[in-house]
């Protein structure tokens, strides 16, 4: 794609959707003096931490953004991944493999960000992020910094925390949407709010026929039930249950993808998953609050593959289960100092292996301890923390190459072995300049370990990565709804783990991607802005992330051409009376990659040219009835039908047109 006329708009306005949750937090923790200086009072800060012990520190504010329910609906997002599209610094790689879409923040592609559901860390969630229906989501909080410590065990790569629907009033809703490629999204939900509890019951479905003659058919059903109950003035209980069932054909690529991908017909049929979580929060007294969470997740993807060359078929069940419990406490040591500490335990088992590790049992225990402290010095708020994590491998079959360097089917498993400890340390400063502005600094350092079983081109296990992250940010509030965030970040990665571009084919025909270690630097600037409503009708947001990524290879530093240098988003929202119209623009700069590319293509052309595309999405709706409880709407995704790829061989579906109706029953 050549020069794009809309790019200067993003350059001119530059900015992002404000984090409503954290902006409100700032407002709640500040009082204004006669000289218009901001004083973050220790009593207010402690109140927040005692109410939400897992709350990340204020020093991370410029690096955190939020997508709320209204924005998800206005964007026409179908899945969790769709809802992240216009978040600052988000880069989505779409392909047709078992994990269909990979989401990264600030160009950090391995490991990818962690996920949490209602603040509860999920060990194995990459494939589920695409299956998770957006209708179940109240909001999504995206932490792009490596300094997150309390909500995830691998937050050195960022964290995506999904808050599920929690009703504020009695409501019943029916929803339906239909569009190009026989795509659809349907749903029905009921919710009620009583004096001391609320509940939600919802069933949602979505699917598509995909591209003709290239597979890609999908049909997914999501069912959920949630309950939030105030058992006593001191004790709160929350329970969430999710069930996912359906099937997904893995879309076949086109050239320059390797022939081994072109001749495979693959699918998950059926795909089943269940997640059950509960959270107990107990306020002991005015200075101590404890929060205890439990989580179970079970996934049963049934994988099927047909090789059209030799007519050989393969199928197996990739069953896995995980159990997690997390205990965290917030203790006010004094009016200026708040201590938080906690323990986490996770048990994960895949009886028959997982993905390309199928055939060998995996059984892993993970334990972690965390401690943080926050202290108030007038207008300066100081925070710091440390997390230590260690894993015990009861069994790790095909995931290991220890003792052998041949195919996975011949390797020696790990049994009854402790792994090296992983650590993460953070420190932060928040300084209030005026009643409307503040400075924020955060630091994080730690170890990132490769997934066991990952291989380099030479057949070795990648080294551990040591990572250091620095964030410096500025916040300016113009009103309760209008905010500007400017932040700079530096990520220094020693022995960074990244894809090498090479793959190997296992005995059962599955494809495994190979990795490499290299020193990397990633420096960037983010500018994020969200406006007020003009004329009580029009508002807009804009954000831009500039990144300069370097890699040390062949004894010299050079640009890492596999990372886009620039990602920009712009959105406008108009509502007048019963009518609403919304427009969204995304630009992702050029980058290269040779993952899944044929050897002949690599020799002749090198890496495939990717990125350098702009997309425009439009939605519009009209509300009917005296209470405007019926909304008819139309949507157009990639309205100019731009042809682009984020992963070689997997082009975008092109223009998708949809119509739909949302009916609020009461």
Overview of the structural elements:
The protein has 666 residues and is mainly beta. The protein has one domain (7-664): TonB-dependent receptor, beta-barrel domain (Maltoporin, Chain A). Helix content is 7%, strand content 56%. The protein contains seven helices and 36 strands. The strands form five sheets. It has a 22-stranded antiparallel barrel. The two termini are 48 Å apart. Residues 1-42 and 399-409 have low confidence and may be disordered.
Topology (elements, then pairings):
Blueprint: H1 7-13, H2 20-28, E1 30-32, E2 38-40, H3 42-51, E3 64-68, H4 69-75, E4 90-94, E5 101-105, E6 114-117, E7 120-122, H5 128-131, E8 137-143, E9 159-164, E10 171-179, E11 183-193, E12 197-208, E13 218-230, E14 235-250, H6 259-262, E15 264-283, E16 288-307, E17 312-317, E18 320-332, E19 337-350, E20 362-377, E21 380-396, E22 414-418, E23 422-434, E24 437-448, E25 465-477, E26 483-505, E27 511-530, E28 538-553, E29 556-559, E30 566-576, E31 579-588, E32 591-593, H7 599-605, E33 608-610, E34 613-624, E35 630-637, E36 656-664
Parallel strand pairs: 6-9
Antiparallel strand pairs: 1-2, 3-8, 4-5, 6-7, 8-9, 10-11, 10-36, 11-12, 12-13, 13-14, 14-15, 15-16, 16-17, 16-18, 18-19, 19-20, 20-21, 21-22, 21-23, 23-24, 24-25, 25-26, 26-27, 27-28, 28-29, 28-30, 30-31, 31-34, 32-33, 34-35, 35-36
């Amino acid at each position: 794609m050549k020069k794009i006329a809309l790019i200067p708009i993003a350059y001119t306005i530059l900015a992002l959707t404000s984090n409503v949750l954290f902006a409100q937090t700032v407002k709640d923790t500040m009082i204004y003096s006669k000289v218009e200086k901001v004083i973050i009072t220790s009593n207010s800060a402690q109140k927040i931490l005692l109410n939400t012990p897992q709350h990340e520190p204020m020093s991370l504010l410029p690096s955190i953004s939020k997508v709320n329910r209204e924005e998800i609906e206005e964007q026409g997002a179908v899945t969790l991944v769709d809802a992240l599209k216009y978040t600052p610094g988000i880069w989505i790689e779409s392909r047709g493999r078992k994990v269909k879409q990979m989401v990264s923040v600030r160009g950090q592609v391995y490991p990818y960000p962690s996920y949490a559901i209602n603040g509860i860390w999920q060990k194995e969630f990459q494939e589920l992020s695409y299956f998770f229906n957006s209708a179940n989501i109240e909001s999504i909080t995206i932490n792009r910094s490596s300094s997150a410590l309390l909500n995830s065990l691998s937050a050195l790569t960022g964290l995506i925390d999904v808050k599920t629907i929690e009703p504020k009033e009695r409501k019943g809703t029916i929803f339906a949407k239909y569009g190009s490629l026989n795509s659809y999204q349907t749903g029905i939900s009921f919710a009620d709010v009583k004096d001391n509890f609320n509940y939600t019951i919802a069933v949602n479905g979505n699917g598509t026929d995909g591209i003709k003659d290239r597979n890609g058919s999908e049909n997914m059903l999501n069912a959920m039930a949630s309950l939030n109950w105030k058992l006593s003035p001191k004790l709160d209980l929350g329970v969430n249950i999710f069930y996912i069932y359906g099937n997904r054909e893995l879309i076949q690529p086109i050239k320059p993808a390797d022939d081994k991908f072109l001749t495979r017909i693959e699918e998950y049929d059926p795909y089943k998953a269940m997640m059950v979580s509960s959270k107990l929060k107990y306020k002991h007294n005015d200075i101590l609050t404890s929060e205890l969470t439990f989580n179970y997740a079970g996934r049963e993807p049934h994988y099927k593959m047909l090789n059209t060359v030799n007519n050989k078929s393969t199928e197996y069940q990739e069953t896995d289960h995980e159990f997690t419990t997390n205990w965290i406490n917030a203790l006010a040591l004094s009016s200026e100092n708040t201590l938080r500490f906690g323990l986490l335990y996770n048990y994960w088992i895949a009886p028959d292996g997982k993905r390309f590790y199928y055939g060998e049992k995996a059984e892993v225990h993970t334990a972690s301890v965390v401690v943080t402290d926050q202290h108030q010095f007038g207008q300066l708020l100081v925070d710091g923390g440390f997390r230590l994590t260690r894993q015990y491998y009861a069994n790790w079959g095909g995931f290991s190459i220890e003792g052998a360097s041949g195919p996975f089917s011949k390797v020696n498993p790990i049994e009854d072995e402790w792994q090296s400890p992983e650590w993460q340390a953070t420190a932060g400063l928040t300084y209030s300049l005026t009643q409307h502005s503040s400075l924020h600094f955060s630091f994080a350092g730690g170890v990132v370990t490769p997934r066991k079983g990952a291989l380099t081109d030479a057949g070795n296990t990648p080294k551990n990565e040591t990572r250091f992250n620095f964030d410096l940010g500025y916040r300016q509030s113009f009103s309760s709804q209008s905010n500007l965030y400017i932040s700079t970040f530096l990520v220094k990665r020693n022995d960074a783990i990244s894809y090498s571009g090479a793959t190997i084919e296992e005995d059962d025909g599955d494809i495994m991607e190979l990795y490499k270690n290299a020193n990397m630097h990633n420096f960037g600037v983010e500018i994020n802005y969200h406006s007020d409503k003009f004329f009580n009708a029009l508002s807009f947001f804009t954000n831009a992330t500039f990144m300069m990524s370097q890699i040390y290879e062949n004894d010299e530093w050079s640009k890492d051409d596999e990372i886009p240098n620039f990602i920009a988003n712009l959105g406008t929202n108009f509502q007048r009376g019963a009518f609403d119209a919304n427009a969204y623009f995304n630009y992702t700069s050029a980058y290269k990659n040779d993952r899944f590319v044929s050897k002949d293509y690599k020799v002749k052309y090198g890496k495939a040219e990717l990125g350098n595309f702009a997309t425009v999405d439009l939605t519009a709706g009209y509300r009917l009835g005296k209470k405007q409880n019926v909304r008819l709407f139309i949507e157009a995704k990639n309205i100019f039908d731009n042809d682009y790829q984020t992963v070689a061989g997997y082009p975008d579906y092109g223009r998708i047109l949809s119509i739909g109706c949302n009916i609020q029953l009461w």
